[in-house]
Write a sequence for this structure.
């Protein structure tokens, strides 16, 4: 159904669920109280008393605009993953991921 009710759990026996799991709707989905979109990104809140999305986004809306406006056709998110192997420790990846000031010259 589309009510959010949990209908079935995969392999419930032996999966380690406590006895109280899924009793009286404890794991049904909660209805989203407030839903808005901005430039194709979807946002939901369980709290109905929140400020409008654009106000909540504040300066972050400018970053979303910059990303989406890079192409006249807009932004398209494709499914998939990127994987690679590099010779280095975990710090190398972390530090290079934070190195935004070289992006314009790469």
């Amino acid at each position: 159904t589309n009510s959010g009710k949990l209908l079935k759990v995969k392999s419930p026996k032996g999966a380690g669920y406590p006895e109280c799991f899924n009793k009286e709707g404890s794991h049904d989905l909660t209805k989203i109280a407030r839903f808005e979109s901005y430039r194709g990104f979807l946002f939901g809140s369980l709290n109905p008393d929140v400020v409008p999305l654009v106000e909540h986004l504040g300066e972050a809306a400018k970053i979303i605009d910059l990303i989406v406006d890079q192409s006249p056709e807009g932004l398209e998110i494709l499914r998939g993953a990127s994987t690679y192997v590099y010779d280095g420790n975990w710090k190398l990846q972390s530090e290079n991921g934070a190195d935004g000031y070289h992006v314009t010259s790469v």
